Amino acid sequence: MHRLVVFGDVVGSGRLGMDEKRLTRAAMYEAFGEAYASVGIEPGTVHQEDRGDGILAALRPDVPPALMVGRWIDTLYESLREHNTGRRTPLRMRVGMNAGLVLDDGRGLVGRAVDLACRLCDSAPAKQIMADAQDVDLLIVVSDWLYRNVVVEGGRYVEPTHYRRAAVVAKETDEDAWFHVPRRPEPPVGPEGDAQTGGGPSRGDGSPPRTAHAGGGGRTYTAGRDMQVVEGATIHGGFTGFRNDGKGEPA
């Protein structure tokens, strides 16, 4: 069945002691439960799997995805913010969201949609954002399909222009994803991909073109007007830097 998949993971859980883990898990489930209730999802109607320091969930097909990328995210953010007020060790989470065909084989959820939701949550850009921005309690990462078909349409609590796009490359995954920190105009996205503001496929928006780089099989990412990131290139002696010659190639 085609379902919306959510994978949430607690940041830095490996550094917590047993008592802190117990409190963190309780707060995580409470925050997810409050978020579900805000969009009319009753307890027990969500397929939810415990992942120790995280939760994997698949929503019923009749749950409007616009509610999940809107009110659900907003309520989850507010719940985490309230929980963290005055706490020395805040509960911080990364959440990957995707939609697609999902199979419940009686042992758990399987399918490409599930794999991608987990990859988005655990991606290098997502981890880098949370490492660089210690004051961020919640990071949302949605698939390109979900952004273009749901988020970009907007709606109450939906902030399509507050997303930034970056490439997620891990194992067999090579996808564009959209990163969002609630209540912030744009999250910082690290060097794993171009990070330009959302709002649709217009000039200066979205991830860079990927082109084969002669001789090294690498890829060149054009990041704005003045910078390029080149992967897999061979740099010879005498190198002093890259210069943009106005044609999209390093001089």
From TrEMBL:
Residue segments, region Disordered: 177-227
Residue stretches of biased makeup (Low complexity): 204-213
Listed GO MF terms: adenylate cyclase activity
All residue ranges annotated as the Guanylate cyclase domain in the record: 4-121
GO biological process per UniProt: cyclic nucleotide biosynthetic process; intracellular signal transduction
InterPro entries in UniProt: A/G_cyclase, Nucleotide_cyclase
Identification of the protein by name: Guanylate cyclase domain-containing protein
Species, as recorded: Streptomyces showdoensis
Lineage: Bacteria, Bacillati, Actinomycetota, Actinomycetes, Kitasatosporales
